[in-house]
Amino acid sequence: MSNATRKVCLLGDFAVGKTSLVGRFVRNTFSDKYLTTVGVKVDTREVALPAGNVKLVVWDIAGRSALDTLDKSYLRGASGLLLVCDGTREATFRSALYLQMQSKSLLGDVPAVMMVNKLDLADRWEVTPLMVNECRKTNPVFETSALTGDGVEAAFAALAEALPP
Amino acid sequence: MISEPGQQDSALSRLKALLLGDERARLAQHEIDLERLAARDDALADRLPELIERTRERDPERLAHALSEPVAEALGSAVERKRQLIVDLLFPVIGPGIRKAIAEAMRSLVGDLNRALEASLSGRGLRWRVESWRTGVPYPQVVLKHTLRYRIDHLFLIEAGSGLVIHRESAPELSDLDSDAVAGMLTAIQQFVRDSVGTEAATLDAASVGEHLLWVESGPRANLACFLRGVPTEALRIALRERLERIHERLDDPMQALRAGAADHGAYIASETNLARIDAEARAATESTAPRASPWPLRVIVLVALALLAAWWWRGYQWQREVATFRATLASWPGLVVQDVAGERWRGVRVRALVDPLADAPPRTIAADPPLPVAWDTRGYVSLDPPIVLRRATLALAPPAGVVLQLDGGTLRATGTAPPGWSASARERALLVPGIAAVDFAALAAAISPRELLERSLAPIRAMEVRFVRDTETVDGEAEVAALVAALRGAEQQARAQGLALQVRSYGSNDAAGGETINAALRDDRATWLALRLQAALPTLDVAAATGVPTDDPHVRLDARSVRVDVALKEVP
Lengths: 165, 573
What we know:
The complex is a heterodimer of chains A (165) and B (573).
Chain A lengths: L3 E9 L5 H6 L9 H5 L2 E8 L6 E8 L7 H7 L4 E7 L3 H18 L4 E6 L11 H8 L4 E3 L8 H11 L3
Parallel strand pairs in A: 1-3, 1-4, 4-5, 5-6
Antiparallel strand pairs in A: 2-3
Chain B lengths: L4 H54 L1 H22 L1 H39 L1 H13 L3 H9 L2 E10 L5 E6 L8 H19 L8 E4 L2 E7 L3 E9 L3 H17 L3 H6 L6 H7 L2 H15 L5 H37 L4 E9 L3 E8 L9 E2 L5 E9 L5 H12 L5 E6 L2 E8 L1 H11 L7 E3 L3 E3 L3 H14 L1 E6 L2 E2 L2 H21 L2 E9 L7 H22 L4 E4 L16 E10 L2
Parallel strand pairs in B: 7-9, 11-12, 11-13, 16-17
Antiparallel strand pairs in B: 1-2, 1-5, 3-4, 4-5, 6-7, 8-9, 10-11, 14-15, 14-18, 16-18
């Protein structure tokens, strides 16, 4: 039994690997078809922290570069954000930051972590270390790989740690 | 001494200071206070929203308490002064609410009607009626006992915005369910539906898949999602709605309750969402609101049904009687052999039978009310029924008037009087008639014809005589001739009636005395004497005197002095 339950939203541009990234680390209750029909899929993930377990209810919002009205309604009540970009496409990095900025109007300053995905293709990355370092000034940044799972657990743990009690 | 103007002002000032110093100082202080108050009011107007927000954060209850009275009074004043504005503002809120309430009421009414119709008109409804009569339990309770077959599997209290589960209740034996994911997805779908419809007030109230049913009661801050199986009643929805309203009264900030692990409200929420209590409350409400069944409509229906049944039975009984009577009639119908009678009450009967051509025409209707037609399917046959045999014999023998035929067993008996010729012929032909085995004409008298009767009536005339004393001197000639004339006139009339005529010949007789020559002449004279008188009296009559008649003629008598006539009938040419 978790001590707390928090809603977090997974935001990122189209085809950055959001669903694949978290698919291995959440309890898959529903089909991915909801992403293309309803535009969101909800799964849960329990994270163990020294202060107690936190159950993250992850709203995987269908990928897009800007939030529309429906997306904003999906964001309501979120305690944190998982921002995902594709390291091989610099534009997705900017999209993730733009999505975070858009969400501020609704959520305020909620904790967020940036997941720069496709670490297994690091040699083709367009997202530079400079950009990553700049981003770290506002968000924790994790270099992740949906293929190997690298960095995913740490990103979830960091976000859970940062969530308000 | 005239002082300078500046000196004068200074002096006046000093004087004022001496006289009004204290008042001027207080006045200056008041002016300063006024300026300070004005400045503070200006700042307060700017800071008021901020102050209210800060107060709300620090002590929301105190702020709400402080504002409740003035806000209520201000609202009342606004309603009085700007009623139309208030109406315009509230219309978008009240309208959907009213429509929703009406829709819910109509849905409940339709549901009740459907259940009532289903329960009243189906075989299942009749079984429940019987059970109600048998057990003494009111019919509505029996219906409820059978229809309230539903079960609440899960009940989620969900924070409306985030879709996070505030509290969850599940039936004990059910498998584990990721309630947070389900609640989240349900909230997402609700938001998706709302966004698709484009109306903020639109909510997903119910969804069903097979026997599983999802009911969602939506509130401004929290929703109740109820996963059911079976057929729940509207009372359950009302119970859920009332509980959600009570939860809203207690739960100002669901997210706060959520963050606090619902510690403050946990017991209360658990009590409000207790499945057993909700179920019991819904069933009790349904039973209490179930309409009391009035036995009268059913009794009337039963009485009408019994009356119809009795009428139907009586009509059937009457019909059977009518058919039986009809069968009996046909069975005694001479010349008719019924092979089959098939009938339907409303259409009439169809009879298959053998019919003798000499039988009376069978009936074309059956004496029902109203009379029904009889369709005949007949074939001919020769009947041996006595009436038909007698009728056949009558036709074949054509008995004359005065002959009565009767059939006794197979024997044809004839009584009365018949011409002898007919009797002989009939006796032979009667045996050829089917159904006649013997003939008995013993009681049949031979009939005398009018001519024969006439012939017989002539005999006395032939015996009449006119007597003579001697020669042609009569004993009582006038009287005897008159009697003879009268008898002949009557006979002539009877003969004429039969188309005949009389032929009269007079024969004279004599006694034994005298010679034959003289006697022969005397007989001729006497015959002529009478013929002449008869011709005179009966001129239309064929009268002649028989003269020269030998003595051996039977008309000649040799022992009497008389004259007689011989009368014969002859055909009129």
